[in-house]
Amino acid sequence: MHENILRLADITMQFGGVVAVNNLSLEVNRGEIIALIGPNGAGKTTAFNCITGVYEPTNGVIRFNDEIIVANHPRGKMKKLYAGENAAKYKNTRIMDPTPDQITKLGIARTFQNIRLWKSMTVFENVLTAKHMRAKQNVLSATLRLSHAEEKRMRQETAELLEEQDLLQYADALATSLPYGLQRRLEIARALATDPVLLLLDEPAAGMNPQETQELGEFIVRIKNKYDLTVLMIEHHMDLVMQFSDRIYVIDFGRLISAGTPQAVQADKRVIDAYLGVVDDE
Amino acid sequence: MEKKDKTGLWLTFGFIALIYIGVFVLEQVVNANHIVFTVLKKGAIYSLVAVSMNLLNGFTGLFSLGQAGFMLIGAYTYAVLTMPVAVKLSDSVYKYYDCAVTFDTGILAALICAGLAAAIFAALIGLPVLRLKSDYLAIATLGFAEIIRAVFQWGALGPITNGANVLRSYLDLTDVTIPFTDIPIPPTLFVFIAAGICIAVIMLLINSSYGRAFKAIRDDEIAAEAMGINLFRHKELSFVISSFFAGISGAMLAMFQYTIQASQFKSAMTYEILLIVVIGGIGSVSGSCIASFLFISASEWWLRFLDDSKYNILGMNLMRAGFRKLVFSVIIMILVLFFSRGIMGDKELSFSGLAKRLKRKKAGMPAKEGDGDA
Question: What Rg do the C-alpha atoms of chain B give, in angstroms?
Answer without folding.
Answer: 22
